[in-house]
Amino acid sequence: MTLAALGFGPDFAEQAEGASVARISDVHRDEVRGLTGSDQVSLLLPNGLKLRQITVGDWVTFDPESGLIARVLDRRTVLKRGAAGNAARAQLIAANVDTLFIVTSCNHDFNLARLERYLALAQSVGTTPLILLTKADDPAEPRNYLGEAQGLSPLADALALNAHDADDLARLAPWVQPGMTAALVGSSGVGKSTILNGLTGAGAITQGIREDDSRGRHTTTARALRQTTHGGWLIDTPGMRSLALRDTGDGIEQVFADLVALEPDCHFSDCTHQHEPGCAILAAVDAGQADAARVARWLKLRAEDQLNTATGFSARQKQKAAGQRPARKKKKKR
Ligand SMILES: Nc1nc2c(ncn2[C@@H]2O[C@H](COP(=O)(O)OP(=O)(O)OP(=O)(O)O)[C@@H](O)[C@H]2O)c(=O)[nH]1
Ligand SMILES: [Zn+2]
Known about the structure:
Elements: H1 10-16, E1 21-27, E2 32-35, E3 40-43, E4 59-62, E5 69-72, E6 78-83, E7 86-95, E8 99-105, H2 112-125, E9 128-134, H3 145-150, E10 157-160, H4 166-170, E11 181-185, H5 192-200, E12 210-212, E13 218-220, E14 224-227, E15 233-236, H6 249-255, H7 257-260, H8 280-286, H9 292-312, H10 315-321, H11 327-332
Parallel strand pairs: 8-9, 8-11, 9-10, 11-15
Antiparallel strand pairs: 1-2, 1-4, 2-3, 4-5, 6-7, 12-13, 14-15
Bound molecules: guanosine-5'-triphosphate and zinc ion.
Organism: Rubricella aquisinus
Region (Disordered): 310-334
Domain EngC GTPase: 95-241
C-alpha cells in the first residue's frame, strides 16, 4: 500500500517536510495507532498535545524511533460536534473525510430534521454528503423514503439499500476508491456496522467494542479508520446519539438556500419570520411556495447553531470579527 492510497497528497507532503508520516487509524484512551503505508505503528502523544486534539483520519509526523508524534498536519476537513453535555465545546469526530455517508433506515429512524442537521454539518466542512437509506428490504414500509430524502436538498443525493446485500453495497464503490475517505454517521442501530463490515469484508473482528456506558446501554465505542475492499477508507463513528450543531452556520445557509434568499424581502431587517407583517417567508408559506414545517426546522436549527457557536466563541467567529477570511473557505474550492 502506498501513502497516496492512504489519502496522502501534495498538501500534506509540503507540511511534512520529509519527516515520517502516519495516518491515525485508532484513538483509544490508552493507545493511538497509525498507518504508514507499510506498517501499523503505535504512537505517543508529546507533552502539550491532548488526546482530544487528534482524531481518526488525521495525518501526523512522528519520530520512528520513539513513536512520538511531532505534529498534526493541517486538515483538509474536520468533522466535529458539540461535546456530550456541553454543546459549546467541540469534540472532534473525524479528519480528512471526503464523503459523509449519512445513514438512516427506512423506518421510525427516518427523520427529515436530523437529515438536514447532518447535511448542514457536511456542507459546513466541505465534505460531500450522501444519504444512505438502509433496510430498504423491509416489506412493511410503504412510505417513499428515497423520494423524500432526495427531495431534501439539491446538494445531496440519496441511495436506498439493503446493507446485507453485497450488490447493493457495491454501489458505494465510487466513494471508497484508493486515496478516498468516507465516514459513516447516523443513529445507533441504523446499520453503520453492517455497512462497515460489508465494505471492509470483515466479520466479527471489526465488530467494534461494545461497552456498558453510564446509562447501562450498549453502544459501540470503537472509532476507527478501516480499509475497504475497494482500496479506499471508511471511518465509523458509532454511538453518536446526539448531534449538537455548532459553527455550522454556512452549512445551514446552504441546505436552506431557497429560504435564505427570501430574507432580504422581509419588511423588517431583523425579521424572525414568525409573526411580523411583511414577512417574505410567511408570505411564501401562505402562497404554498414554502413548506411551513421545513421553515420551522430551519429556524430551530439556526437558533441552535447560533447559541452553541456564540457560547463557544469559535476561532472562526474570532477571525470573522477581525475581518479575516476563515481558512476553511479557501479549502472548499479544491
Ligand atoms: N433487513 C435489514 N437489516 C439491517 C440492514 N442494515 C442493518 N440491519 C440490521 O440492523 C441491526 C443494527 O445494525 P448495525 O449495523 O449494528 O447498526 P449500527 O448503526 O452500527 O449501530 P451502533 O453500532 O449502535 O451505532 C442489525 O441487526 C443489522 O443486521 C438492512 O439494510 N436490512
Ligand atoms: Zn420574515
